[in-house]
Amino acid sequence: MSEMRLYSVTKGQAERLAPGSLGQPGDTICYLSLQQLRDNIARLGLNEGLLNELSAQKTSFRSTLDVFESLSLGYINIINVDQLDGEMDRILFILRRDLLCLVSVADGDGSEAAQFDALMAQERQNTSLARVFYRFLERLLKGGNSKLESIEDQLLDLEDQMVHGRADEGLNKVIYSYRRTLSLIRNYYEQLVDISSALEENENGIYPDSQLSHFRVLTARAERLISGVRALNESLTQLREMLDAQLNYGLNNIMKVFTVITTVFLPLTLIVGWYGMNFRHMPELEWAYAYPLLAGFCVLLVVGVLYYFKKKKLM
Q1: What pLDDT, in 10s, does the model give residues 90-137?
Q2: Rounded CA gap, 90 and 66, in Å?
Q3: Which end of the chain has fewer CB atoms within 10 angstroms, the N or the C?
Q4: Residues 6+ apart with CB under 8 A from 264
């Protein structure tokens, strides 16, 4: 079991406390494991029914925030936008006027605990419960701009590939992969916007009005990232239309070739079929010049058809 992390905040100063100090009066920030939450539920002033309700939401795949009269609680699903197929971390949070409690539900590599330690190392002066929670949420947006810029560069490379005629049906899978990636990122940021907007509304008044600006800033930053995702989705739609147009153009060219071939050989097939009937009374079959004349006619016919298609720019 990981070590309990406990801090008190007095007049803007955060101080590390021993685990046994949990439950003492004053503003408290703590980072616990799920088992530590169960063991200290009474010392935190919470009831068993609340813990059971939280446990029922443990496997939910959405970030949530529920607002009650004297507290707010919810879950945050944390993903690495650079490794969307990686393991997802999950943090439970409990907010009161005098409490910020973060509970590790899923943190296989210990990265969330390390991030919390780094955050608290910076937030020792001029801090508050609202500011610490804002900083905890803010770092979930880090890497978003660079990820979107990277995707934009890759889409420009795809566009260049199409412009130079190097498109094939395999690009459909590539475009689908980007669409899935952008969908996951957009969904992730939209859930963060839902949480930060609810915190900004502050229905139960757990934060002073002067500290709500933190969450307005967070909402605005997340919404800008969502706008970037939407712009990239529009670019993907245009690329898909461009790819379809190029594939259809290639298919039309193939059909054009088949049309020319069919048109050239159709009269030849008719001639072969006509003289292949071997009727007994076909006088030209006995004529000495019938074969070279028919061969010359067929050559002229082919040349004439090809000239016609060339003149009409069908070849």
Answers
A1: 999 999 999 999 999 888 788 888 999 999 999 888 899 999 999 999
A2: 16
A3: N
A4: 302, 305, 306
Helices (H), the chain: 34-39, 48-56, 111-122, 129-138, 144-163, 170-201, 213-275, 290-311
Residue 198 corresponds to which tokens in the numbers above?
């609810």
Q: With a threshold of 0.85, does the pTM exceed it?
A: no
For 266-288, letters b (16+ CB in 10 Å) and e give eeeeeeeeeeeeeeeeeeeeeee
Report the half-sphere exposure of 250 (CA within 13 A, side-chain side). 11
**Closest C-alpha to 182, from 227, 214, 221, 141:** 227
Which tokens in the block code for residue 31?
Answer: 């980072």
Higher pLDDT, 65 or 255: 65
Cα distance between residue 311 and residue 315, in whole Å: 8
Which amino acid is it at 142?
K
DSSP annotation of 61 reads: S
- When the candidates are 1.10.10.10, 3.40.50.10580, 3.90.1140.10, 1.20.58.340, the CATH number that belongs to 254-311 is 1.20.58.340
Alpha carbons 174 and 9: distance in angstroms, whole number:
50
- At residue 251, the 3 state secondary structure works out as helix
- Rounded to a whole number of angstroms, the CA Rg of the chain reads 36
Helix (H) / strand (E) element for 77: namely strand 72-78
Domain boundaries, the chain: 1-138, 254-311
Q: Dig out the tokens for 76 from the structure.
A: 């945050």
